[in-house]
Every structure is written in structure tokens, then in C-alpha cells.
Amino acid sequence: MASPSWLQALLNPNKNWFAKQHMKTVSQRLRNYGRFGHKGGSGSSPSRNRGRQKPEAQARYGSLYEARVPSSGSSGLRFEDLYDPKEDLDIKEALDRLPREIVDARNQRLKRAMDLSMKHEYLPQDLQALQTPFRSYLKDMLALVKKERAEREALGALPLYQRTIP
Description:
The protein is built from seven helices and no strands. By secondary structure, the chain is mainly α. Helix 4 packs across helix 7.
């Protein structure tokens, strides 16, 4: 079904000043959205899959991500803060083994990022300069947990933790 010509003229940014302003605003917001690192792991639209890359993917694509998103400290999160402990029990176990100060700092970064997101704001530039989004705090412990799990499976022992339905 063809659109009426008056509707096409109304929505055409070359013919309507308001449509042109709307297009500029939306494109600027989308550019800011991608620049500040809010995209999902594979370049998909931000959705429920945001930040749920496997640790192997982080090792493979972390430097590419760092090169493409230079100002990713806008929310103050680190790359490993996006791992979901409810999705992967190895991550949950690694977080349980970390010192309390590191886990508290992670929770504080997540709360700050959610607060900034709800306010549609970013960290001030001076605080963004202090952020270290690619410093790892979970990689070593996660590798140890995966190694222990693989060793237990090789020996035929039961896993230390299993997924249960509450």
C-alpha cells in the first residue's frame, strides 16, 4: 500500500524542517549511545543480551572493543562488571572467592551505572579520565574456577555447585 504524497512530504527531512530536526536529534543520540559503550557484545541492539559475552570472547575482542570505544568510562563500569553471575555459575563462584572489597567496588560501579542510566547522564569528564574499564579483576579467579571444574569433571567427581530451581 502506497503512502499518500502529503505523508511522504511530512516525513521527508529534505522537505520538512521538523522532520530534519528530529532526524538530527535521533542520529546524534544514537552516535552518543554507541560511543559511550552501551552497545551489546556483538553490535546488536541493546537488549536483554547486553554485556553477556563469554570470557573467551572478551579475551579475543577486548582489544578491538577498546580501540573502537575509546571513551567507554562514561558510566564507570569495567568490562567484567557486565558478566551475569546468574547466567554462569563459574562467574558466581569466582565472585564468591574474590575479596569483599573488590565485590563491593563492583556492586558500587553497577549501582552508579544504573543511576546514571536512569538519569540519562554520564560521569563528569574528570571522573571519566580516572576510569579503568579494561583493568581485569575477575579473569585470574575465573580461570582458576574453570580449571578446577574441568579437573573435577576429568576425575569423574560431582560438581561443587549445580544449578537448582528455587
